[in-house]
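=== RUN LOG ===
request id: a7f3
mode: sequence -> structure
chains: 1
length: 123
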Amino acid sequence: MKVELERRQFGRRTVRQHAWVLVSKRARLSCLVLNLSKQGAFLEFDPPKWLPHAFDLLLEDGSVVIGCEVRHYAKMGVGVNFVEAQVVATPEPVAANPIVNTGLWTGSDQANLRNALASRRRR
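=== RESULT ===
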């Protein structure tokens, strides 16, 4: 019996949140964040051939932009490592946030991601 070992340093969590890939001087690309860890994510979309190694990811609620680097390509999308995050707006209160109400992405998920990225920058 063959056993797959998890090679990731940090565990991942399924989130299924809509986001956009931002590339300078290009139209933004819609994608779905399928899973997330402290260091990266898997983005489901059809990556164009011109997709650069480094790009920004804008989360659905528009509050966080995350710098990403492509780690690997797959049939369904790309795996990325997080480089840095920038809070660009204050998220709506939790009760009014439709993402929280659907259970796709919670305010604490975003806070945990910001904290993890901030701690990586301090090293």
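=== NOTES ===
The mean pLDDT is 77.
Helices lie at 98-102, 107-122.
=== END ===
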